[in-house]
Amino acid sequence: MERVPALDEPLKKSLGPATAKVMAEALDLHTVGDLLHHYPRRYAERGELTTLADLPLDEHVTVVAQVADARVLTFNGAKGRGQRLEVTITDGSGRLQLVFFGKGVHKPHKDLLPGTRAMFSGKVSLFNRRLQLAHPAYELLRGDGDGSADSVGTWAGALIPIYPATTKLESWKIAKAVDAVLPSAGDAVDPLPPALREGRGLTDLPDALRRIHRPRTKADIADARERLKWDEAFVLQVALARRRHADTQLPAVPRRPTPDGILDAFDAKLPFTLTDGQRKVSAEIFDDLATDHPMHRLLQGEVGSGKTMVALRAMLAVVDAGGQAAMLAPTEVLAQQHHRSVTEMMGELAEGGMLGGAERATKVVLLTGSMGAAARRHALLDLVTGEAGIVIGTHALIEDKVQFHDLGLVVVDEQHRFGVEQRDALRGKGKQPPHLLVMTATPIPRTVAMTVFGDLETSVLDQLPAGRSPIASHVVPAADKPHFLARAWERVREEVENGHQAYVVCPRIGDEEDQKKKAKASPEDEAEKRPPLAVLDVAEQLGAGPLAGLRIAVLHGRMHPDDKDDVMRRFAAGELDVLVATTVIEVGVNVPNATAMVIMDADRFGVSQLHQLRGRVGRGSAPGLCLLVSEMPEASPARQRLGAVAATLDGFELSRIDLEQRREGDVLGQAQSGVRSSLRVLTVIDDEEVITAAREEATALVLADPDLTAHPGLRTALDALLSEEREEYLEKG
User: Fold this and answer.
1) Of 109, 350, 378, 563, which sits with the fewest C-beta atoms within 10 Å of its C-beta?
2) For residue 85, which phi and psi values (nearest 5 degrees)?
3) What DSSP string describes 308-336?
4) pLDDT tens-digit readout, 382-421
5) Which region holds residue 340: left if phi is over 0, alpha if psi is between -120 and 50, else beta?
6) 457-461: strand order across its sheet
7) Contact between residue 364 and residue 342 where contact means Cβ atoms under 8 Å apart
């Protein structure tokens, strides 16, 4: 069925080329349908005055307020005498000054008489220690100009929609544009099947669009939002349900571990027992591997919960069944780390075909972009002959030259760092689609997992292995209390004196490349804050100052891979006391003797990133210490974020805080390979019930009608809401 012509109409036909151009550039709105789905952010009531007391500095705001006072002042400027109009507006809680200059004073002087109510829009700035809006755009709130009691009455009861706007396009201009296209809402094709809509008591789509843009009552807004949430949740869940359904139709080779194979030998030599969580998740994975369609499973677990152990046992099961397993890591440091820890855990079982290797053993090879030609040739040969049962590597694994003998399982570490195409290319290396296990140490709230990774079954490891130590976390306010920072370095020295090691993490490297990047920063950024602290500078200062005499080394992403590996080996072997590094140590680096971490400029990192970094300490029997250093003032959101990280070690709780503090689209956009989020009214944290119900309804509908033959409206919505790019993302999972 073709998409609805009325909603596909370009905006320039309805609004004229100039307005349409601004809408496209400023808000990415191109069609009538785009504009109808650009919903108000909130609604101001006639007579309700927005709080002026807490206006954010340097932000673009729209306020509804009343003129208290207006006066024209004359001043002598460089070009002779000039005029300035100063208008004071109030809302009962605070006052705000508006200023207009030069020829721009005449119209506002006539319009903005004391007692007049209006909407004002502009950027909040500071002048003479007082907040002001300079040359704000404004719209008077009064009847439609005919002065009739009816029109004034309509205004008195009206809810004024406040739209997400920009400097070039104020909220009321968007409202006028919506008025022009709102009649087209009647042509909107409803994606929800009538039975579902009626069963859940939801209004139809044309009515919902009319109510959200021009509500008569607050109940109208609530009904419209409820309905539109269902659209977003349901269409997305149908797309994911179709993806899951398509996967069940794909063929895959079942991989059942043979008894008395490498897996049994590996389990027998483990020096510890697996946690209940590891056993349960392994059972889920083994069940999936035994089926004749590809496994698609997301394994999420707390930092240090033993995900690598679960993944390794799955890989060994596949090797026992005659296949090969590939593990894809996002960085060379991490690939080398995984290779080292896997070969150490397996011992002689990783020495297949070598002298001293166990009778039942396989080869574990490493493949990265910076390997020498000879080593690389050798690794590629081991893969194509099947000699190597396990390969661990970076995106170098994806190159055309890399051929496998029989790829049965792909393990992707840290899902969010890989593009869709990379995962797809690796999955395409199998004769039949291989099984897929995606691991992430960033805990994902259940609803986000259902929305973003809805085509993957989810396993959660939330138990820490026995013997793991608690990590104490504290915020160090370097600007307010410099002696706290001095004490932090003393604590690092104490840890080293007790035979332990420490990390110091900085946001930046501090070499020439950094300087080039800095040159591109805007003047506003430069004025606003100093550059983030850099690894090379901090290492030098610590070596000459508070940590003089300790063995300090640096680690960052632009070092030569051999140098990186050498530093990591020396640190792991205890030959270094302090490692000053960027976030290259964020995931997978495992040095049980490292007990302390100092994160400089901690406010420059995200919540989940801080949690990841902190997980590098406390990995042995000694307790861990994480110090979050920041110069931000106590009341700032950044400091509150750090306080939240220091207050809990629960990654799921932190990911919830992280999600509440960021825009939904950022979170989903990142996971959806940078594609703009289609969620406008649905919030994945608060709307758990809607998402869960929509998933159930979508699964049932797709099971009964995978091609949506009986649901043309739903097909249309799927095409419209999921752009080709997003559809492709869902296709590739």
Assistant:
1) 563
2) -100, 125
3) HHHHHHHHHHHHHTT-EEEEE-SSHHHHH
4) 999 999 999 999 888 877 788 899 999 999 886 554 555 6
5) alpha
6) 363-367, 388-393, 324-328, 407-413, 435-440, 296-301, 457-461
7) yes
* Residue type at position 654: L
Q: Among 612, 677, 679, which Cα is nearest to 649's?
A: 612
Query: What angle separates helix 171-181 from helix 17-27, to the nearest 10 degrees?
Result: 120
Q: Please state at what angle helix 218-249 crosses helix 688-704, rounded to 10 degrees.
A: 50
**Helix, strand or coil, per DSSP, at residue 298:** strand
pTM of the full predicted structure? 0.66
The number of residues making up the chain comes to 733
Structure tokens at 646: 């220091």
Tokens of 702: 């797709």
Please give the Cα distance from 563 to 669 (Å, whole number).
35
Distance CA 603, CA 594 (A): 23
Angle between helices 307-320 and 332-346 (to 10 degrees): 70
Amino acid in position 610: L
**What sign does the CA torsion over 241, 243, 244, 248 have?**
positive
Provide DSSP, 548-606: TTS-EEEE-TTS-HHHHHHHHHHHHTT--SEEEE-GGGSSS---TTEEEEEETTGGGS-
Sign, Cα dihedral of 143, 148, 153, 158: negative
Give the per-residue pLDDT at 660. Answer: 67
Q: What is the rounded CA–CA span in Å between residue 683 and residue 691?
A: 9
